[in-house]
Every structure is written in structure tokens, then in C-alpha cells.
Amino acid sequence: MNRFFVRKENILEDEKKLFINNRDDIKHISKVLRLNKGDILEICNGEKREYLAEIREINKDEIECKILNSMVSKSEPEISITLFQSIPKGSKMELIIQKCVEIGVKDIIPVISKRCVAKIKDVKSEDKKLERWNKISLEAAKQSKRGIIPKVGRVIKYSDIEKIASNYDLIIIPYELENSVGIKKVLKKSGKFKNIAVIIGSEGGFEEEEILEAVNWGAKPVTLGPRILRTETAGLVALSVILYELGDLGGN
Fold this sequence. Notes:
It is an enzyme of class 2 (transferase). This is Ribosomal RNA small subunit methyltransferase E. The chain is α/β, with parallel strands linked by helices. The protein has two domains: 3-72, CATH 2.40.240.20; 80-245, Alpha/beta knot, CATH 3.40.1280.10. It has helices at 23-32, 92-103, 123-143, 161-164, 183-190, 208-217, 231-245; strands at 3-5, 11-12, 17-20, 40-44, 49-58, 63-72, 80-86, 107-112, 151-152, 156-157, 170-174, 195-200, 220-222. The strands form two sheets. Strands 7, 8, 9, 10, 11, 12 and 13 form a seven-stranded parallel sheet that branches. β2 (11-12) and β3 (17-20) form a beta hairpin. The longest helix is centred in the middle third of the chain and has 21 residues, at 123-143. It is elongated. The relative contact order is 0.15.
């Protein structure tokens, strides 16, 4: 069943109805999927609540639906993971966003680290990229039936992570020169937590001083195994291992 996100103010639970007024969604429902009155949609408010809704009326500006049922989304991990991703070259960031949203990331923050080749020219260029990246996140959230739409935040400098490091119970930073401590060991030693940050380097990885800087914030350098992973693979692997170890992927 197709999933769509709507704003909370478009959901009138007391009246058992909701409205879809996003032009792209209206076009997709009516022109691409060719759905009609009486067809059923899966709707989410982006805050872990979802609805089964029956189409009542379709016009060019709005689709009105009757709410048949509502429930709390079961697709969200209990743990909140933020990915700090050093910006890679080309379109790799798009793949990273798409797959990490599918896996279960909460937020993605693009980072400029020392070995980043990709550059953001100006605010206008950044705004254009963020619009594209957040659209990819939205589409991935629909496809994977997420209960939220993970946000891709504004680009920050690597050193700026220190300012928000205290927001996280655990910070993990995969590093190719770490060969003894893995994510599993760190999770067992660190106890219970609600918010985890994962910091991933660009194509050239991290410089040693960046790792030392992160350790000063409280970050834990870890190995992802004996093979060197690409930047577009490392975050996905790290998230997968964390969620598996915490019982979210692959069952308890």
C-alpha cells in the first residue's frame, strides 16, 4: 500500500477525515497510481502516527479522505541515530541519504572535514542541495514506511560537532587505523542510551588530529572490520550494525 505524509493540521481526527494538498502527491495519486474514490491510502503525520484512509474526493488542489483507522507507527527504532556525514564527491550523498533513511537514521548532518574534496560554493548552492537531499529523504521515508521524515540539516564544519556533542549519549567514529575496538564492544561497555551520533569521513577518511579532536569530545573510534569501506558504504554499515546489536534489525 502506498504511503504519503501530510501535515498534522491536515488531519481532523474528530471529524474522521484528512486532506492531501501537496501537488506532487495529488499528481502521483491521481495520474501515476490512477487511484479513485474508494481506494485506500496509508497516511503518516511525520510524528510516528499513521492512518488508513479512504479516498472520498479528488480534485486538482486537494484530495479528501475518510479516516478508517489510526495507530502508532511500528517502523521507528527506539534509539535515535544522527549521522554526521562528511560530504563526498558527486552524487554519493544522495545514495547515502536514501539508504540510511531506509535503514532507520533519525537525522543526517552534512559535514565539511579536512579531506573533503566537495565544496559548497555559497548559501544559494547549499539551499539547492538541501532541497534535493530532503526530497530524497522524503521519498525514501515513503518507500520504507517510516513514521518520520528524517531531516537533512544545514552543512557544518567538522569542528562544530563539538558544540552539540553533549546532546548524544554515545558518539561513534569509524577509523581505518583502529583495529581492536568494534561497535559491538562499545555498545556493551557504554550501557543504555537514547541518542547516538555516528561520524563518517569523506573519501580520504580522517586525519589523525581530527580523530584526537573527536576523542576529546567523548567520541569512540571503532573498526568496521578488516576491509576498507567507501564513504558511501561506511555509514550504512555502521547504522546497520548498531541497529542489529540493539535488536531493531533482524529481530531480538
